Amino acid sequence: MFDRRQYAILSERYFESMLGDFSSLLWMIGQAPLIAALIILRWKSWQVTETFYFVIALSAVWFGCINACREIAKERSVYKRERLFGLDTGAYLASKIKILSLIGLVEIALFYFLIVRWINTDISPVPGYIALFGLYFSGMCLGLLLSRWCGTPGKAVVAVPVVIIPQIIFSKFVLPLDTLKGAALKIEKLMVVKWGFEALKFGKKGDIQMWDYASSMTVLIGLGVLFLLLTWFHLWFAGEES
Description:
Elements: H1 4-20, H2 22-43, H3 50-68, H4 76-83, H5 89-118, H6 125-150, H7 153-169, H8 183-188, H9 192-202, H10 210-241
Helix pairs in contact: 1-5, 2-3, 2-5, 3-5, 3-6, 3-7, 3-9, 5-6, 6-7, 6-9, 6-10, 9-10
């Protein structure tokens, strides 16, 4: 599928560049306990409701999207130059996925640990973590797509709220579920938060609805893969044009 030697070299280089910009890496990981603390402050003394599940699902998508949104755009000139010397697009994109996913594993672990430490979420631990990481993954893939299509880090960061806010607008938490009709209902099915939220609901302790959980996770990851394919296509097409 891609050049494994290039993948290994690019992954190592990307990891070293992350360590070189340690303040940005610290912010990526540090936002998770910060948001977790705010959620704990709000829900610690209250019974968990579906709104809580929606908030933690939206938070996980935000982490992935904001972490990834600059990572291709900031290397635009480097990518174009290296494509002239045989850079493999698949290996380049896979290296981004690998390092950002490793960051996400740590970030979601911190976020989830703090949440369950202080709040009785009523979610089974492993399905809950997998669902939140799936949300991070799809958010990350969406961020990489923005990073490529927007072209510059500044534009990509500005575009993040543009794709996050519809996750809220096209949900039953803004208007009653029966108001989602026609085009709005179709758009809602493209919202990654919807499927992660459903997975969290189906992963409750002692009442895991495995088929529904697996179905929601399949759609959630499928949307992430779709975003990656669109990103890869644009990277490849731009390389062919240059």
